[in-house]
């Protein structure tokens, strides 16, 4: 059913509701939630949903009344079978993928995460700005210590100035392989989409399935120094689909549509380590949003989404029953020299039959298949990313910083670390694989959270603030690699005064081979003002920057053998992680942190930590 102004979890009262009213709202929501796969639609996934009492609520940042949602997800283990293999995975309320969150711009969410699992857990609300709520961002040992077994932590934040598709996921080790779910932020009541109103809205999440425990996989990799084993399958809404063993029937996601209707597909790449080309056979779509930011619409039959990115597309179905079914297919875009899951995942697009007799014969025919780009089609990836432009309208302006206070030049890529004494490692030349920003590898997390250490002025032994603004030793970044491939293992951050306008050039390196890297910045959106191949030219390339309508994102792909330039305004105090969204590169140290200082006004300062902030 379509998501209109009446059928979502949305309240305008700050007062607690009577029990009967809660039950009525809950019953209404049960029948009118988002149209998603069967294993995601059971509202038992939210074990408690209520309006917070007035005395427990704090007003939104803008001071206006808004809805408050209170969720109690239970983190627990569950046995799940995929591709002929049964294993125990971490879930929220026993669901894989996890529960969806539906809110409106301006809503305040209180999400009390209860950890019943034997593993430490944190949850990141990927793409949520977290204005003045940095304690709830979620990356382990950056903004919080983990939620330990038997503990509870209430993530409490307001959605300010955002609407669109985002997602939530675990942000500790490789737990997000199974612990993730969609976030749908609707416009404020009465505010229409800047595109035709869809008949239905459908979240579609792309993920990866590992037959072994993902934590065991990366732990073995870190111990031996080798690359980790790859996934056994990709998934669509948690299901591998008919191209994998044991998956043709109940483990295939089917999107059922009506002829002549417009569907808003909310696409999320929640895969751990793979960018994905995606296409729907014999259909084109109109791209209207990237990372919860509206863009100038354009049509395409194929698109690319990196891990950490989201994309909204309009699918206008054929005006007649087509006498066929169609694959929604995805395969990896792979640029590195390491191993990867070279398989294709598919769901089925299925039209409602006009007669009872027509469809059984159609179902016996194989679905039509789309043509996807080759595995290493970098020209397509680059051209597609360049087509994304902000709407840049009066209502949705592109507030690109026109002047820059601080410039940064960050090299991004892989390297090596020495093997431990008396140990043989399986990385290049007997070393261990590592990854770095400006040759600084943040591979070992601190034992206390950086944000708490910063707030209380106890950074000694936790981090230093001398992260290099450019490479320590310049070299031919995309050419012949240097002889020394070793990284420096340290925990460093960059300090920014409040309201600093920042430009960062992210440069891929060929130290162990050119490779695309999806970089995600916590706490901010940024504008992608430029990109290109080869080494960035500081003298000439800025003249070609787009500072009129660049796409606004929270995750950007650094081109393989190239560079990308981003700009943002440091208007959100706190400690904010920036990292590669390939979890293997994150584990190897491809991350750094920004510390944004308080401003002078009360609404420009980071509040004290909450009383239930987990302790290390």
TrEMBL record:
It comes from the Eukaryota. Lignin degradation and detoxification of lignin-derived products. This is Laccase. Binds 4 Cu cations per monomer. Gene3D superfamilies: Cupredoxins - blue copper proteins. GO terms for molecular function: copper ion binding; hydroquinone:oxygen oxidoreductase activity. The lineage of its organism: Eukaryota, Viridiplantae, Streptophyta, Embryophyta, Tracheophyta. NCBIfam families: laccase (TIGR03389). Keywords: Apoplast, Copper, Glycoprotein, Lignin degradation, Metal-binding, Oxidoreductase, Repeat, Secreted. GO terms for biological process: lignin catabolic process. Its EC number is 1.10.3.2. It is found in: Secreted, Extracellular space, Apoplast. Belongs to the multicopper oxidase family. It catalyses: 4 hydroquinone + O2 = 4 benzosemiquinone + 2 H2O. Transmembrane segments: none annotated. Residues 76-188, 201-353, 467-598 form the Plastocyanin-like domain. Its cofactor is Cu cation. One of its GO terms (cellular component) is apoplast. PANTHER family: LACCASE (PTHR11709:SF352), MULTI-COPPER OXIDASE (PTHR11709). It is an enzyme of class 1 (oxidoreductase).
């Amino acid at each position: 059913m379509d998501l209109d102004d009446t059928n979502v979890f949305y309240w305008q009262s700050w007062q607690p509701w009577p029990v009967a009213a809660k039950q009525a709202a809950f019953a209404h929501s049960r029948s009118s939630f988002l149209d998603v796969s069967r294993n995601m639609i059971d509202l038992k996934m939210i074990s408690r949903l209520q309006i917070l009492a007035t005395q427990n609520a704090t007003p939104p940042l803008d001071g206006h009344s808004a809805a408050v949602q209170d969720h109690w997800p239970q983190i627990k283990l569950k046995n799940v079978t995929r591709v002929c293999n049964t294993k125990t995975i971490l879930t929220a309320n026993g669901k894989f993928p996890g529960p969806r969150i539906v809110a409106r711009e301006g809503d305040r969410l209180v999400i009390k995460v209860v950890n019943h699992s034997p593993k430490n857990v944190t949850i990141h609300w990927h793409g949520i700005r977290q204005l003045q709520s940095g304690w709830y961002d979620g990356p382990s040992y950056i903004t919080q210590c983990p939620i330990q077994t038997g503990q509870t932590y209430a993530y409490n934040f307001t959605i300010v100035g955002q609407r669109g598709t985002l997602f939530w996921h675990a942000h500790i080790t490789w737990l997000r392989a199974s612990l993730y779910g969609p976030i749908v932020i609707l416009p404020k009541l009465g505010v229409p989409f800047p595109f035709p109103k869809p008949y239905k809205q459908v979240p579609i999440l792309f993920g990866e399935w590992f037959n072994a425990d993902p934590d065991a996989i990366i732990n073995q990799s870190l111990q031996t120094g080798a690359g980790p084993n790859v996934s056994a399958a990709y998934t669509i809404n948690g299901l591998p689909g008919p191209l994998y063993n044991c998956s043709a029937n109940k483990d295939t996601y089917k999107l059922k549509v009506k002829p002549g209707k417009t569907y808003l597909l909310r696409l999320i790449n929640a895969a751990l380590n793979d960018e994905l080309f995606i296409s729907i056979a014999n259909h084109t779509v109109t791209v209207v949003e990237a990372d919860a930011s509206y863009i100038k619409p354009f049509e395409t039959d194929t698109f690319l989404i990196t891990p950490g990115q989201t994309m909204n597309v309009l699918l206008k179905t054929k005006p007649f029953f087509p006498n066929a079914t169609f694959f929604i297919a995805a395969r990896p875009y792979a640029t590195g020299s390491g191993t990867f899951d070279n398989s294709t995942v598919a769901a089925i697009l299925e039209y409602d039959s006009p007669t009872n007799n027509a469809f059984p014969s159609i179902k016996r025919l194989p679905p039509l298949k789309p043509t996807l780009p080759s595995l290493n089609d970098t020209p397509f990836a680059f051209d597609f990313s360049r087509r994304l432009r902000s709407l840049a309208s009066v209502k949705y302006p592109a507030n690109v910083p026109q002047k820059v206070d601080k410039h940064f030049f960050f090299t991004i890529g892989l390297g090596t670390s020495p093997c431990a004494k008396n140990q043989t490692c399986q990385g290049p030349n007997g070393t261990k694989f590592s990854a770095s920003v400006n040759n600084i590898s943040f591979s070992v997390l601190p034992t206390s959270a950086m944000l708490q250490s910063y707030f209380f002025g106890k950074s000694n032994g936790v981090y230093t603030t001398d992260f290099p603004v450019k490479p320590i030793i310049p070299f031919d970044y995309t050419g012949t690699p240097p002889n020394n491939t070793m990284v420096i293992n340290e925990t460093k951050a960059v300090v920014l005064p409040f309201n600093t306008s920042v430009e960062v050039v992210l440069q891929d390196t060929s130290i162990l081979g050119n490779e695309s890297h999806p970089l995600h910045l916590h706490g901010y959106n940024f504008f992608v003002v430029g990109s290109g191949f080869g080494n960035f030219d500081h003298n000439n390339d800025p003249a070609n920057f787009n500072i009129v309508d660049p796409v606004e994102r929270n995750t950007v792909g650094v081109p393989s053998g190239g560079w990308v330039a981003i700009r943002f305004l440091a208007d959100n105090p706190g400690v904010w992680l920036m990292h590669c969204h390939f979890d293997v590169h994150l584990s190897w140290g491809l991350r750094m942190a920004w510390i944004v200082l308080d401003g002078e006004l009360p609404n420009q300062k980071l509040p004290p930590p909450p009383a239930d902030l987990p302790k290390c």
